[in-house]
Amino acid sequence: MKWPKKLKSDFAEKLEAFFQLCANRIVQGEARYGQVGPGKDYFVRIEREIRAYKITGNRENLINAANYCSLEFYYPNLPFTYFDNRAKSATRGKIGV
Questions:
Q1: CA nearest 44: which of 18, 26, 71?
Q2: CB–CB of 12/3 below 8 Å?
Q3: Considering the entire predicted model, what is its pTM?
Q4: What pLDDT score was predicted for residue 7?
Q5: Cβ-contact 60, 76 below 8 angstroms
Q6: Is 37:70 a contact under the CB 8 Å cutoff?
Q7: Where are the alpha helices (DSSP H) in the chain?
Q8: How many CB atoms lie within 10 A of CB 61?
Q9: Are 46 and 61 within 8 A, CB to CB?
């Protein structure tokens, strides 16, 4: 994977390792449960994984949550989804979320 030069190389390696863990879980999940796709409530699964992480501290839950985020991105359950890269971050500034 090519990363922008502004990204510190040690973090680029960590990102690659994280994405590899995510990819491994998707492959394993497809082998166990079948192909990913629409029709599943991935958003509920994101919330459950984050809740489990907050209770247990197990970072495996973060990998699962990241995968469910990507699945929700490509197979949204909400009827009004869109993509706007100009949107303000919910974690910065004052957004009513």
A1: 71
A2: yes
A3: 0.83
A4: 66
A5: no
A6: no
A7: 9-33, 42-56, 60-74
A8: 18
A9: no
DSSP at 80? T
- Using alpha carbons, list the distances in angstroms from residue 7 to 15, 26, 50, 57, 75: 11, 26, 27, 27, 30
Task: Report the distance separating Cα 77 and Cα 68, nearest Å.
Answer: 12
Integer Cα distance of 43 and 69 in angstroms? 7
Which has the closest alpha carbon to 76: 34, 46, 33, 53? 46
Q: What does the pLDDT profile of the chain (97 residues) look like in tens digits?
A: 666 666 666 777 888 899 999 999 999 999 999 998 888 899 999 999 999 999 999 999 999 999 999 999 999 988 899 999 888 888 876 655 5
Q: Give the N- to C-terminal CA distance of the chain in Å, as an integer.
A: 34
**Secondary structure letter of residue 24 according to DSSP:** H
